[in-house]
Structure formats: C-alpha cells, structure tokens
Amino acid sequence: MVCLGNICRSPLAEGILKHKANAAGLDWIVESAGTLGAHVGEPPHKLSQKVALHHGVDICQQLARRFEAADFERYDKLYAMSADVLEHMQEICGKKFIAAKAALLLNELYPGENRSVVDPWYDGTEPGFMAVYKEIEKACEAIVRKYRQVTA
Ligand code: 4NP
Q: Ligand 1 pocket, 9 CB below 6 A?
C-alpha cells in the first residue's frame, strides 16, 4: 500500500487490509510505504490512528518508511493510493517498475476509472479522514473478496 507520506492513507490501507485478510483466514503479508522521504520513522497521523481505532483497527505501532524499487521484488501486488503516487513509483523504479504488479487501489472498487483516494493531509479534518477510511475499507473488502475466490 503506497501513498506520498506513509502517514495518512497507506497506513490505513495497511491496517484495514491486514484486519480483513486475517478475518478471512488469508495468510498475507501487508505493508505500506510512502514515495516521499519527509515522514520516515513517524507514526501514522493522529486522525488516521483515531478513525482506525474507531473501527477496531489499531495502526498506532506503524512507522513510516520510504517506498523503494526493491518493493517490486518483495511483494506480489502494489497498490498506489493516487495517480501522482503511481507516477512517483515509476520515477523511483525506472526499469524495475513492473506494471502488472502495480495498480490504483480504487480500481478494485471502480474498475478502469483510475480514481484517486483524496489525500486528507491537506484538509486535515476528522470527517475528511473518516471518509477516506470508508473508501479504503470498501476497496480492501473488494480485494479480499476477489482473492478469496481465486484461492478458494
Ligand atoms: P499521505 O498524506 O500521502 O496520505 O500520507 C500526506 C502526508 C504528508 C505529505 C503529503 C501527503 N507531505 O507533503 O508532507
């Protein structure tokens, strides 16, 4: 799960997908990273922590790290929260970018529409973070449904 800072959107996506995969009995390794280096080592934004806890998902122990090209070797699927993030990932990886492994998260929910998860960092309000949580949650539900069918 990749966003810009790895403090607002992708920590939520990591926490939510881990939670849903566990509940579905799927043995997945789910992690997150950011394409910017600005917040490396920081915990998730207070409002990401708060809206996650409100839904029973604890992301307080996460620490931000920077996305790197080697992540394409480590993971089977890499979800970008937004189009600018996907572009950054391509810039960072160059020839190591594997298009078949990368996707916009919301294309799991709205196939082919190339929608981006709005970045709540700029608005900075709890309703903004709550709306982002709900959207990411729906996308994660779609992912678990899809792969549970494949592996069943
Ligand atoms: P995120 O939000 O990508 O969802 O973690 C942001 C956090 C920080 C910044 C940008 C986006 N920043 O520019 O510092």
A: yes
